[in-house]
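Look at one such:
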Amino acid sequence: MLSRTADSLFWLSRYTERADFVARILDATIRLATLPQSYSGERNEWDSALESAGDVDLFRSLYGSANEDTVRDFLAFSPANPSSIRNCIETARENARSVRTALTGEMWDDLNCAWLELKNFDNGMGREEFSRFLDWVKRVVLAFDGSAYRTMLRSDAFWFTRLGSALERADNTARILDVKYNLLLPQTERPGGSLDYFQWTTILREVSALTAYHWVYRESIKPWLVADLLILNRQMPRSLANCYEILVRHLDLIADDYGRRGASQRMAAGMQSRLTAAKITEIFDGGLHEFVTDFLADNNKLGHAIAEQYLS
């Protein structure tokens, strides 16, 4: 496969996954913002949405303050934000168009129809209509991912799409955890209180993991168990451990098919080994923020290693 084809498939999957992530951030933020102000005093949900997306500096250069209207516009529709939902879907579609013959008809139809329908939405919607828009985004990405999984040959084209999805998903899950643990709960609210419980529950809903949490732990929401599920539980599709199982497996398939191993295989395997050996108590003892910061840096390095080895 040509490197430019692999690059387009890799980023096509990253951008569709990112659109889903931003929709989930906004959905969770709206849920939190519906709480009455008297519930916990001053809060910072819209700032936390920007922190989760990792676009605070760009936002500050474009808008005066973080509120529902400005953050919705920036994260969902702004052409100046490369990671807005609109830009993610448009960029994914452009990547798909450039490698049209490497995609199945179902994949192209799902993404192209989404791109055409996207033109019907803007930030003038009310909250209820905007929530339906976010549900639409999540359905679009689910349909596209399902098409890829159900219709693509298990060849290098499929493997590169899986790499992009898993790398982006690992980054997103780590950011969600870090923002909740370090930013979202007001200083006036005690950990373990009703607001803390509601926020952790919302985070689980955000990553479609609330039911899975109760299946695994069979008890009330506890921060260290949420972190255990989203970091170390290999059965959880959005966990860091599961994402790295996917990365290692598909990097190995590419290496076997191409007859050469390299830095990306070594880095992914090393991260998988660290996650397998980790204990959630040790992670909390060392600092969840420090763990996530190191993970994000290593995950970003893996992305660069994949690009250097296969995509350039």
Q: What stands out?
A: The chain is about 75% helix and 0% strand.
